[in-house]
Write a structure and sequence with these properties.
This protein is α/β, with parallel strands linked by helices. Helix content is 41%, strand content 15%. It has a five-stranded mixed sheet, sandwiched between helices.
């Protein structure tokens, strides 16, 4: 049985048994939060449980490393939509120890791209178009650096309301323990005091 047939068989029973009823909610986050986190498989169920989140509580945006690579990319757009259209009032950036984006081997990944059959002319064309693999596939030196980098992009975004706190956490992917790296409320207070 393929993964597609397994999923479809399960889904049919899920719908027939009305198992979905346990997850009914609307599109607005009840806890008025948007979370940018990593796509790591260990966090799929652990992160919501460790943060006491249920279905419908938060807008959760996932990508590799919880990294914003540019201020006008899809992850930042999702954060802004969560704020302006869905009523989110806080943003959380949650990285985790043991992240695969820590010291990502860009050259090794490009080698794997070649091994999987991507023609060298494609890579050359991308490079000639200004897409640098070492930048596009860049990770970070430490999870702290990654979280702080994303927070900086969010906090300095020209479309972010100044009253939206941006918090930073690092999670233990085994225990779910959270370490507060940045308290967004204190950052807002500091900004207001400096005026």
């Amino acid at each position: 049985m393929t993964s597609i047939s397994e999923i479809l068989a399960h889904n049919k029973k899920f719908v027939e048994n009305k198992d979905y009823e346990a997850y009914l909610t609307n599109k607005y986050p009840d806890k008025k939060m948007a979370i940018l986190t990593c796509m790591d498989t260990r966090l799929v169920e652990l992160l919501p449980k460790a943060m006491n989140l249920r279905n419908g509580d938060a807008k959760i945006i996932k990508n590799a490393g919880a990294i914003l690579t540019q201020p006008f990319g899809s992850a930042m757009r999702s954060i802004l939509v969560a704020i302006y259209e869905m009523g989110a009032q806080e943003v959380f950036v949650v990285g985790h120890h043991g992240c695969g984006m820590t010291k990502l081997d860009t050259e090794g990944m490009v080698g794997k791209i070649r091994e999987r059959g991507i023609d060298e002319t494609v890579l050359t064309t991308l490079e000639n178009s200004g897409i640098r693999m070492e930048r596009f596939l860049r990770g970070f030196e430490s999870v702290e650096e990654g979280v702080l980098h994303s927070i900086k992009i969010i906090r300095n975004h020209p479309l972010l309301p100044p009253d939206i706190p941006v918090h930073g956490f690092i999670m233990d992917p085994t225990t779910g323990a959270l370490e507060l790296l940045v308290d967004g409320f204190k950052e807002i207070e500091r900004d207001q005091e400096s005026y």
